[in-house]
Design a protein that fits this description.
The protein has 164 residues and is an all-alpha fold. It is built from eight helices and no strands.
């Protein structure tokens, strides 16, 4: 019994473990935000509505203050600019997120993609690529898109071959 109590407090009170947990959470926030920024820039324009969708999604998903959210997005913007591919972000997410959390990332991508109500084929291809890297099955990818469209009241359904 004493060992269990010691273990409990060691796991929760050890500052090194807490620091690692905070750092890991911060890395996941940055990885998610960087993917969303990549989505916002896929159409070669930076629309304020897309960045508002990023801000809202990151703040809601990670339960951050508005100031923390802005800081994460600014850091992620630099990370996304320096990144050579999406794998460094998706591999981190794959290591630490479960299926539902990864599906939430795909939903956030769709929110950004559909926020300006002008989805092009490159944006859609990027969501598909990232969903694949996150090991999200096609049916879940489509379900995420439909959920976001329903939530946003968006009537754009893309190409019919999406539903094959």
């Amino acid at each position: 019994m004493i060992e269990a109590i010691k273990s409990f407090f060691s796991d929760r009170m050890d500052p090194r473990k807490h620091a690692q947990s905070v750092e890991q959470n911060r890395s996941l926030q940055l990885a998610t935000a960087a993917l969303l920024i990549e989505m916002a820039q896929e159409d070669s324009a930076r629309h304020s509505v897309e960045f508002q969708a990023i801000h809202d999604g990151i703040q809601e998903t990670f339960d951050l203050t508005p100031e923390e959210t802005v800081e994460v997005i600014e850091l992620a913007d630099r990370e996304a600019h320096e990144a050579t591919d999406h794998f460094e972000f998706t591999s981190l997410i794959n290591q630490h997120f479960d299926h539902d959390q990864k599906l939430k990332v795909v939903e956030l991508l769709w929110r950004v993609c559909l926020s300006d109500q002008d989805m092009n084929k490159y944006e859609e291809q990027l969501v598909r690529k990232i969903a694949g890297l996150l090991e999200i099955e096609h049916r879940d990818y489509i379900a995420a898109k439909l959920k976001v469209q329903r939530d946003m009241g968006n009537t754009y359904y893309g190409d019919l071959d999406d539903y094959e």
